[in-house]
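User: Before I run my own analysis I want an independent prediction to cross-check against. Here's the chain; please return only the structure tokens and, at the end, one sentence I can use as a sanity check.
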Amino acid sequence: MKKKIVVLGAGLVGKAIALDLAKHFEVTSLDISEEALKALQASGISTRKTDITDTSALQAAIEPFDLVVGAVPGFLGLQTARTVIEAGKNMVDISFFPEDPFQLDDLAKKKNVTIVTDCGVAPGMGNIILGYHNKRMKVSAYECLVGGLPVVREWPYEYKAVFSPIDVIEEYIRPARYVQNGAVVVKEALSDPELIHFDGVGTLESWNSDGLRSLIRTMPGIPDMIEKTLRYPGCIEYLRVLRESGFFSYEEIDVKGVKIRPVDVTARLLFPKWKLKPGEEEFTVMRIRIKGQENGSEKLYEYNLLDRTDKPTSTLSMARTTGYTCTAAVHLVLDGKFNRKGICPPEYLGEEEAHFSFIMNHLKERDVIYKMVISNQ
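Assistant: Structure tokens:
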């Protein structure tokens, strides 16, 4: 008898997750949007219109299932995860909520559940790869550069969003943390821009973003760690102007007697410009470098990913690279191969050789390929 999975959120990534898992499991998708659910119904996925913010309704909805996948916007992530834990269900989550997930660790352990957080492409695969190497070498430096971009550069933003627009804006305003010489450094997002060439893409611009997340806590012995976001050159200035002018602010302002948050208006205005048009293609590019000492010599491991929209299925690259990392973790948890209790960031998944190999093969089978090169330093 097939195990039952419920996917919370039927957006572009949630849809890719549901379709992939339906090959092996009985899948139901929950969302408040009837339009999003209709797209899945056409593919034979069971759906149910549900207000995920209603704690009682959510607990009742997930009760029959063996595992929950969280694919909701980040601002809903923490409360959703708490509700799932209270219901005593295992979960794999990609919501990337801004709060510290370890505040739920004691509750998850008390409920004897496994909660895999941040299980996408970045954070996600970067953590998994670092977790693998950190168990096998003394890592001295970790760098992750990552971005999802449209193939066609369209003025003014030369960017399209796969995730919730509010979640994208969070990248531009949340202070960026990185580790330098063993100390945590905090800088504003969009700082330290740098031009970098990528084969098959050209020159992109990187800037500090808050992508290390759990690694700052779980990898305290690594003296240098940083994650930077990639965009087409020139976009930083647009974003800085909007941010400094208050368009990304969460503080309410009074407009003709009406209280509004500028970020909500900005998201509403920008989303149509950031939305991919039918048939429009995009790609995901990522470069991970891990330096350190292994078996008495200095080594550099470099992983490169360049993934594009899958034309036959019209599955977006960001949905593939994020969603299929998530579905790999779902298999490991449901098959009982990964059963660590409590809050489990992706680096925990990567520690075991068998788990790491399974995830990499799972992705390769779906044509998401990380090319790895080793060199002596």
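Sanity check: The first helix runs from residue 12 to 21.
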